[in-house]
Amino acid sequence: MNQYVTKVYEEIESRYPYEKEYLQALKEILESLDVAVSKDKRIEENNLLERFVIPERIIQFKVEREDDNGKIQVNNGYRVQFNSAIGPYKGGLRFHPSVNLSILKFLGLEQCLKNSLTTLPMGGAKGGSDFDPKGKSDREIMRFCKAFMSELYRHIGQFRDVPAGDIGVGAREIGYLYGEYKRLTNESVGVLTGKGISFGGSLARTEATGYGLCYFTNKALEVLTGKGFAGKTVCISGSGNVAIFATEKAIQLGNKVVTLSDSNGWIYDSNGIDLNAVKEIKLVKRGRIKEYLDYHKDAIYHDKAIDKTSLWSTKCDIALPCATQNELNEEDAKALVKNGVIGVFEGANMPTTFEAYHYLLENGVIYGPGKAANAGGVAVSGLEMAQNSMRYSWSFEEVDKKLKDIMEGIFANIYETAKIYGVKANDLITPANIAGFKKIADAMIAQGF
Ligand code: NDP
Fold first, then answer.
1. How far away, in angstroms, is 295 Cα from ligand 1 center?
2. Which residues 6+ apart lie within 8 Å of 108 measured at CB?
3. Which member of 8, 220, 363, 394 has the lowest number of beta carbons within 10 Å of its beta carbon?
């Protein structure tokens, strides 16, 4: 690596040695930017790398709520406002017990590049809490959301920072968060995205990340293999928002999805996943993916506690990891390659480990990183902000068409950037990082320090 790039990585590593997810994302990004740093002298002259990889602001607060037994419980709340060079901070809130600053810094860093790639004017941020919504009553979740917002509201705003959902934060939580923001500020503005349709949400926002992932996959396959995303056997992980709507669009495009998972295990259905059953289990009953067997006795369930077989050992043409970070490791990558996978496109953020994606790239697999492939969610969030500002709403078809155009535009931008920098065609991560960073770098230089 270029001396300057190495120096930046080593400095951050020595300052934050325990923030492993942040360092992992940083390494991946800096490795890609190496070639851009050598070509564009302004990056080093303006110390842009160190200025970009340190968040502009980190807010940490305490969240107290009463649980259903009348006991007071305490959690950590965070908002990492990473970079605002190209627009107000924008990025999701995650409620999961694993949430810590390392995870939010990695997500915030990725978000900056992702938002830049959408071409919409949005800076990057991420936030959340180590609160675990699983198994909690609706009322307790509402009390938590209100308590969380009672601190966060001071730091956000339609022109300042516009949060959305992520793991553990869906339409229900966004509704409670928005209600509390409105109560505290007496303002009905588009301060959160992913809102309910009856109070300013955008049609197609729920579907956007999963659908966008499939639009991106389709374009990449069309250009790089001559055949689009149809007639393929597809492995998907997760069974949340992204996984469900990626499954829906993949099936609509004429593919067969054979796996889904949650943190307890995964299902394999050789006949193709029955999405109606999954929607009933996950969206109506808020149940576990294991319950799929109640609908399809011939499907197979692998319980993670007793069966270590990886979902990625299933034979498929296309893999769409849609659960969480680092869920696809080098062993998984080897199994996928052995089984003839053509492409891995990420619905989740950083689901593929550093070693795993290098293995995929070395073996000619098309690798579409999350910051490009899953940008559909934030893109439609940007469209929700536009609709809120106009006091107007577009139809589902209009939003879906704009989403498709944005996803195909992201691929085109990456493809052109790859040609300029001489990157191998199956490597979509290097040009994604370069193209995303370039816009932010230009804005940072133009705005001075
Ligand atoms: P959801 O909370 O709706 O679903 C998450 C899914 O992943 C669930 O099936 C969950 O299982 C599983 N999962 C979560 N953590 C783990 C873990 N540690 N190990 C195994 N499985 C796990 O979240 P989303 O679908 O919204 O998000 C999924 C991914 O997509 C995340 O990486 C998120 O950052 C990314 N993303 C989401 C966007 C969006 O618009 N929602 C936009 C762009 C990216 P369980 O129920 O058992 O926890």
1. 23
2. 55, 80, 81, 82, 91, 124, 125, 126
3. 363
